[in-house]
Design goal:
The protein is an alpha+beta fold and 674 residues long. Helix content is 53%, strand content 8%. Strand 10 and strand 11 form a beta hairpin. The longest helix is centred in the middle third of the chain and has 36 residues. Bound molecules: ligand LHBTZVTM and flavin-adenine dinucleotide. GO terms for molecular function: acyl-CoA oxidase activity; FAD binding; fatty acid binding.
């Protein structure tokens, strides 16, 4: 596949797809990057970071032993860290961690096929210092953390408790005599478990523990704790630390365990922005809201929506390009084998992935802007917007991670057997994203947090009180009765809100009926949780549909007609897909008729056909470089079979024609001598 100048040519099918694309791919790239200037900056950063030869591993990571994999990941993390420190700060100093942090995140994928052992340092340790420390503490810890002298992680979860933070058992007891806290792990179940980088990499961590002073427990608080010697890296006396062992994914993250045996830390190592311990042991609460110490989790939930949108875009790019290259079966006897992308069922599997990647990215951008507003409010001492934001970020984290994981797995299915190859990168993308459904708050648990807020909002609507923006629709749908059906995009969004309102109303009725039978409110709630989770999901789906539709319209106001058309097709596809997926709900809560359902299905199939010629252009517009995609099936040039063979030949088993196990076991077996 090389021309006579040695330049590798692009697969002919892919080249034809690109030639037939109806729009200028760069225009959509600019939209997704938030403007042409952002694209230019991103590309500049990518150009001078991704040329490094250290990106190419002679032996694929997945063929290394767990220890070698970890060591390789540390090596690359240090090189990546140095790169960030030396070069990327030129792009705006600390600002690099603001607007360009998403670019950093993208580039990191070129360095690590799995996870950097330093992810938690940049992703949670540094943000927690920013969010939970006083200005004085920040000036002590931030410079050391940013220069990587102090390397940290976030150790909250314990063997016995992850979800129920109030149930954590690690204690931090204040000793006024020495002005120290004594950290202790009273039981096996109180051992910290899971923190990324804890096993072997970090020398500090943020430990969340129950604070005791003057004989009283004041609940969980965060502390900065040094666990290893800075010179020798040996665990300090009183610290028991190690790695938790192999997992479905995250295998280069050295997730660890940690126990304390009456381990002492200075008083000022308590993160004191939201609560303080005075020298004499007096507890001073500064957090009027009560849940400000959960701030890092909220921040990461916001980040995760963007994270999974990007990973879904990677999977969609791989699967769509592969589907344009792969030919299989025949549609009519004797005809040439079609590209598998021409099968309507394949389009059904894949185009929703492209649309969902857009929907989640636009929703994530909107969520980030909303979050920035909440942070500004908090800086001015206003915490009124927190309950709504907690409900919103919880459900968006739950639904985005769940949708992305399911659709990434669908991308793998759509690549047949080759999708199962590690070299396709789909298994690693999946194993990474499926974890997001659990960490930083389990799916069900977070939806139940949202449901709590929705039920309260419903009660406020009943009482005629004003509602906050994301639930203001409840006033409109408050009265019983079906939502009128209208098959326009706006109509489908309204119907989605109508379904959410109907489900919330049904939950309220169930809880009240159960309470009437003599059950406590808690028991009635518990018996209704299946419905409550479904109501929170419906609410979240309506929010995503609404934000995606309105943001896509806003963003494309000045776009060329062709870009506007294809973006409109994608949003309409997303809305029709979910209307059809939730048709039972629509039949129950809206006035949709059987003919309307037939029309919805027909329109959906028409959209698949309309999007088909632009499918490759749409994934090209994600503009994800080959080094970041890391996939034999998804590279820009479409040299799928050549890359599969090149990667197979790198397998250590192919380094010698005969493996020694033949002489040790097979031959004796064959000769009856075993
Ligand atoms: C090399 C890399 C390069 C660059 C990197 C740069 C950036 C990368 C950044 C991000 C990358 C993205 C991802 C990777 C990051 C990390 C990866 C992996 C690590 C994962 C880490 C973890 O998982 S850390 C542990 C997380 N744990 C959890 O999430 C636990 C979940 N549980 C809870 O949150 C709570 O226990 C609970 C909310 C379920 C219940 O809390 P509880 O105290 O019991 O409260 P309730 O009694 O139920 O409710 C009381 C009221 O409080 C309200 N509430 C609860 N939580 C909040 C909140 N957070 N904010 C506001 N309000 C809250 C609740 O609604 C109740 O209100 P009422 O009015 O109803 O009473
Ligand atoms: C890859 C990975 C990385 C992680 N990294 C970190 C880290 O760096 N630092 C850290 O501190 N933690 C980390 N964690 C831990 C993570 O935050 C927890 O695993 C997560 O919050 C879920 O808690 P759990 O494991 O206790 O699950 P559990 O709460 O035990 O959940 C088990 C089941 O019980 C259900 N359940 C639990 N409570 C309720 C309820 N109230 N109502 C209904 N159902 C319920 C859940 O829905 C789930 O189905 C990581 C986890 C993973 C998988």
């Amino acid at each position: 596949m090389s021309d006579n100048k040695g330049v590798r040519r692009v697969n002919e099918d892919l080249a034809r797809e690109r030639a037939n694309c109806s729009f200028d791919v760069r225009e959509i790239t600019f939209l997704l990057d938030g403007g042409e200037n952002n694209t230019i900056t991103r590309k500049k950063i990518e150009d001078f970071t991704l040329t490094d030869e250290l990106l190419s591993d002679k032996v694929p990571d997945e063929c290394l032993s767990p220890k070698e994999k970890y060591e390789n990941a540390v090596r690359k993390s240090c090189l990546f860290g140095k790169l960030v420190k030396d070069k990327l700060l030129e792009f705006g100093g600390l600002e690099t961690f603001g607007p360009n942090s998403f670019v950093l995140r993208r580039i990191a994928d070129a360095f690590f096929k799995e996870i950097s052992p330093l992810l938690l340092h940049l992703g949670m340790f540094v943000p927690t210092i920013l969010g939970q420390c006083t200005a004085e503490q920040q000036s002590e810890w931030l410079p050391r953390a940013l220069s990587m002298q102090v390397i940290g992680t976030y150790a909250q979860t314990e063997l016995g408790h992850g979800t129920f933070i109030r149930g954590l058992e690690t204690t931090a007891t204040y000793d006024p005599e020495t002005e120290e806290f004594v950290l202790h792990s009273p039981t096996l179940s109180s051992f910290k478990w899971w923190a990324g980088g804890l096993g072997k990499t970090v020398n500090h961590c943020i430990v969340v523990a129950q604070l005791h002073t003057k004989g009283q427990c004041h609940g969980t608080h965060p502390f900065i704790v040094q666990i290893r010697d800075l010179e020798t890296h040996q665990p300090l006396p009183g610290i028991k630390v190690g790695e938790i062992g192999p997992k479905l994914g995250f295998n280069t993250a050295d997730n660890g365990f940690l126990g304390f045996d009456k381990y002492r830390i200075p008083r000022m190592n308590m993160m004191m922005k939201n609560a303080q311990i005075l020298k004499d042991g007096t507890y001073v609460k500064l957090d009027r809201h009560g849940k400000m110490t959960y701030g890092t989790m909220v921040f990461i939930r916001v980040m995760v929506v963007n994270e999974v949108a990007f990973n879904l875009a990677k999977a969609a790019t791989i699967a769509v390009r592969y589907s344009a290259v792969r030919r299989q079966s025949e549609k009519k006897p004797g005809e040439p084998e079609p590209q598998i992308l021409d099968y309507v069922t394949q389009q059904h599997k894949l185009f929703i992935c492209i649309a969902t990647a857009h929907a989640l990215q636009l929703t994530s951008d909107w969520l980030w802007r909303t979050f920035s507003g909440v942070v500004t409010d908090i800086k001015h001492g206003k915490t009124d917007s927190l309950p709504e934001f907690h409900a919103l970020s919880s459900c968006l984290k739950a639904i985005s991670t769940s949708d992305a994981a399911l659709l990434i797995e669908q991308c793998r299915h759509s690549c047949g057997g080759h999708g199962y190859m590690m070299s396709s990168n789909l298994p690693l993308i999946y194993s990474f994203v499926t974890a997001t459904r659990t960490y930083e708050g389990d799916y069900t648990v977070l939806l139940l947090q949202t449901a709590r807020f929705l039920i309260k909002a419903w009660e406020q609507a009943e009482a005629g009180k004003p509602l906050t923006p994301t639930v203001s629709y409840l006033t409109k749908y408050f009265k019983d009765g079906r939502v009128p059906w209208d098959s326009t995009s706006e109509g489908i969004v309204n119907a989605a809100y109508g379904v959410a309102a109907g489900k919330i109303s049904a939950c309220v009725k169930s809880i009240r009926n159960r309470v009437k039978t003599g059950l406590s409110y808690e028991d009635a709630w518990d018996l209704t949780t299946v419905q409550l989770v479904a109501a929170a999901e419906a609410h979240c789906r309506a929010v995503i549909c609404d934000v995606y539709r309105s943001e896509a319209v806003r963003l494309t106001e000045k776009s060329s007609p062709n870009v506007r058309a294809v973006m409109r097709q994608l949003t309409t596809l997303y809305l029709h897909y979910w209307a059809l997926e939730r048709i039972g709900d629509l039949l129950r809560y809206s006035a949709v008729s059987e003919e309307d359902v037939v029309a919805l299905q027909q329109k959906y199939e028409e959209l698949l056909a309309l999007i088909r010629p632009d499918a490759v252009g749409l994934v090209d517009a994600f503009d994800i470089r080959d080094e970041i995609l890391n996939s034999t099936l998804g590279a820009y040039d479409g040299r799928v079979y050549e890359r599969l063979m090149e990667e197979a030949l790198k397998s250590p088993l192919n380094a010698e024609p005969v493996n020694r196990s033949f002489h040790m076991y097979l031959k004796p077996l064959m000769q009856g001598k075993l």
